[in-house]
């Protein structure tokens, strides 16, 4: 898909295509549509990220809360979005043994209890072996720093999803 095609999309089509760039936050794509035309992928992405950055803390935390846990209940129930399913299975998180899943569930619960939002990590840039250690490391962060880190992960996920949609090279992070 090229930018000419993106810029020609009507509102409904744009939200259908880009509505899950930020997990389960189609409102962001809806707002970004008003900013067209976009010059390139980087420009389009800039508008998604600027929307996130301009939100009050409650809105930023809301975005994090729209993310399903890694190897969590939604994955077990088969109710992940197609993008999440692909990311989590690519990282090996859909084939954990019972012990590994339990360990992750416990760490996810501790993280949520400490920060009030779920642990978010760009799964495509990680793997099942690295996730528990990263979760434990971030459990020790200060809340303001952790909010920034988690939003950075949301942007990495969004960058990779946008690059997929536009068939672009996603190596620039
Ligand atoms: C996810 C997800 O669903 N995909 C991904 O990369 N990260 N969720 C999460 N809690 O980090």
UniProtKB/TrEMBL annotation:
UniProt region (Disordered), positions on chain: 74-95
Record has Lyase as a keyword: yes
EC number(s) given by UniProt: 4.1.1.97
Pfam family, one: OHCU_decarbox
Gene Ontology MF terms: 2-oxo-4-hydroxy-4-carboxy-5-ureidoimidazoline decarboxylase activity
Domain of life assignment: Eukaryota
Catalytic activity, as annotated: 5-hydroxy-2-oxo-4-ureido-2,5-dihydro-1H-imidazole-5-carboxylate + H(+) = (S)-allantoin + CO2
Domain Oxo-4-hydroxy-4-carboxy-5-ureidoimidazoline decarboxylase: 7-163
Subcellular location: Peroxisome
Keywords: Decarboxylase, Lyase, Peroxisome, Purine metabolism
Pathway annotation: Purine metabolism; urate degradation; (S)-allantoin from urate: step 3/3
Biased composition (Polar residues): 77-92
UniProt record, GO biological process: allantoin metabolic process; purine nucleobase metabolic process; urate catabolic process
Entry GO terms, CC: peroxisome
NCBIfam families: UHCUDC
Family: Belongs to the OHCU decarboxylase family.
PANTHER family according to UniProt: 2-OXO-4-HYDROXY-4-CARBOXY-5-UREIDOIMIDAZOLINE DECARBOXYLASE-RELATED
Described function: Catalyzes the stereoselective decarboxylation of 2-oxo-4-hydroxy-4-carboxy-5-ureidoimidazoline (OHCU) to (S)-allantoin.
Listed name of the protein: 2-oxo-4-hydroxy-4-carboxy-5-ureidoimidazoline decarboxylase
The species this protein was found in: Sciurus vulgaris (Eurasian red squirrel)
